[in-house]
Design goal:
Blueprint (H helix, E strand, L loop, with lengths): L1 H17 L6 H4 L7 E6 L7 E12 L5 E16 L5 E16 L16 E6 L5 E10 L6 E8 L3 E9 L4 E13 L2 E4 L18 E4 L6 E6 L5 E7 L5 E8 L2 E5 L6 E8 L4 E8 L1
Antiparallel strand pairs: 1-2, 1-9, 2-3, 3-4, 5-6, 6-7, 7-8, 8-9, 9-10, 11-12, 12-15, 13-14, 13-16, 16-17
Length: about 280
């Protein structure tokens, strides 16, 4: 009996959650001139990138059921150049485009059909408690379906987009809104990248590393004349993944727990800093 009541309670809560009223299309895509939004792709092993958008124009149709926005993009993406000494190449781009949203007084379900399968409503701590309407659903033949997650914020547009392709068995995209500015309200940390990591000082012959690419053990030969040094391994975002102190002419670093991709080895001696790039297979 208790088990039956528990099942009914869970079912009832689910129905209430799915029955919550979604925002209107006009509430989600409600921007003003000067609003800024920054989105980055965070799919597996995707190098640093950011689409930095600013609203520079806003117009309504005659019957006010459609809004048109002019957007300015000042953005960049990176790619790994796979030569004998792999490095990140930064590509900066700008453009102006126009987007429009119609049926502004209609429920968000008419904009995103995924809400018919599964929906949830929450406040996002990552976006300063902004109201979020989300849907998580499958599309496909019924076996190993493609999976989608899309989230929309009040006055923020689409804040998260995820797509898993069952044929490729991989995440094809994962796009996340990480910063916005609306009037006097600012949330998150803006990306102000103007130069790439590949423009940092290149390594000299004082330190050499091998094998490169590496599977499990990275060997560091010290030809600097300095007995003591400190190393740090950084990922493409500049986050320190591993660090330790070394002595002597040759040392080994265990890399088997690192994910595949490009990394940077930063070595600090008493007087100098050296940077090597290596690839984890």
């Amino acid at each position: 009996m208790k088990k039956s009541l528990l099942v009914l309670l869970i079912f009832g809560i689910s129905c209430i959650a799915n029955g919550q009223e979604l925002m209107k299309i006009g509430e989600v895509f409600n921007f003003e001139i000067g609003d800024e939004f920054q989105i980055k792709g965070t799919a597996d092993n995707q190098p640093p990138n950011a689409d930095r958008i600013k609203i520079i124009g806003k117009y309504f149709s005659q019957n006010s059921d459609t809004v048109i926005y002019v957007r300015y993009h000042n953005s960049y993406y990176t790619e790994v150049i796979w030569d004998n000494n792999p490095y990140l190449e930064y590509h900066f781009w700008t453009k102006t485009d126009t987007v429009f949203y119609t049926n502004l007084d209609s429920s968000l379900i008419y904009y995103e059909q995924g809400f018919e399968q599964n929906r949830y409503i929450k406040n996002s701590p990552a976006l300063c408690e902004s109201l979020i309407n989300g849907c998580s659903y499958d599309v496909g033949p019924g076996y190993e379906n493609d999976h989608y997650i899309n989230e929309y914020g009040k006055g923020l547009g689409k804040t998260y987009a995820y797509y898993y392709d069952y044929q490729a068995h991989a995440v094809l995209w994962r796009n996340t809104l990480f910063y916005y500015k609306k009037g006097d309200r600012e949330c998150g940390t803006p990306d102000t990248t103007t130069v790439g990591i590949n423009e940092m000082t290149v390594t000299t012959q004082e330190f050499s590393i091998y094998p490169n690419p590496v599977k499990s053990i990275l060997t560091v030969d010290n030809n600097s004349g300095s007995e003591f040094y400190r190393y740090e391994i950084l990922n493409l975002s500049g986050k320190v993944i591993l660090k330790s102190n070394f002595r002597g002419k040759q040392n080994k670093i265990t890399t088997e727990n690192l994910k595949r991709g490009l990394y940077f080895l930063r070595i600090n001696t008493k007087n100098e800093t050296f940077i090597n790039k290596f690839v984890k297979e």
